[in-house]
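Fold this sequence, please.
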Amino acid sequence: MLKSFFLRLVVATLALAPLFVYGDDASPAGTAGGWVKYKGNPVIGAENGIMFDIYLLHDQGLYRMWASWRPKRSIVLFESKDGFHFSGPPKVVFGPASTGWEDDINRPDVVKRPDGYHMWYSAQTATSSAIGYATSTDGVNWTRVGIKPVLAPTQPWEKVACICADVMWDKDAKQYRMWYSAGPQAESDAIGYATSPDGITWTKSDKNPIFNGDPGIPWEKERGVGAHVEKLGGWYYMFYIGFHDIGHAQLGIARSRDGVTNWQRLPQNPIIRLGTRGWDNDSCYKPYAIFDGHRWILWYGGRNGSVEQVGVATHAGADLGFPASN
């Protein structure tokens, strides 16, 4: 009888294993696919209040991180020489406005071009969210472009919120390409795609949404959102958040030849899994990754209870572990 009980317990534990994968931050159990969490995590702590949904550029010899600062409903800037040790306290560089749709400002995305810095940001009221656009000569002092959002919900699948813009400039096509999340106000539930010649006027893809959580994959069955896309070696690599349920999220990677269709998920997903050190035990959020020529560096948000902080993971080499493919 006792033996039968323990056998059932083991079977039940194994059945739950794909849903939540826990492990020590520096061990393979806390990651997969060759990723290793930084032992000094979190790199942005909770001493100044909640920081979330970050974006980085390696710019002028520095890693510059624009982050969402919940207490001020604003975007702040941190800087670091190595990407692991950031200066503080945070400096507010962009905040709310009395435009009727920008009560809360967060989720920045920054592109640097010869004419300066371009930022797409999420702006919210109590009932809706949209994406705005601002420019800067130094990444610190920003000027809004217009008084209306450049991307707002217009399609049924977008419901009431468009957020989490991730933009790159395609010099060959001479256009901006945006991956964004949309859905309910509380938490978006799918990823869309749009293009623009000027960063202001956007055309949404007729294939939207281009990416969803896969209901057949337990760790991301609830939704897949929060895309960050990097192009390398003829592939568009999408780092994204997969939700098992609204309270538990981990990070995965998918790739596509055109950045829109035929996404292939990494078999080792989720790459960044729930930790056990008290800062990312409940969820791992909004990834941002850079390949520096030798390794991938990935920054992400971690949540334990109601506290959100920022950590880092690394991956040696450019090869992310996808099967060989033409």
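The chain has one domain: 21-316. Residues 1-18, 22-28 have pLDDT under 50 and may be disordered.
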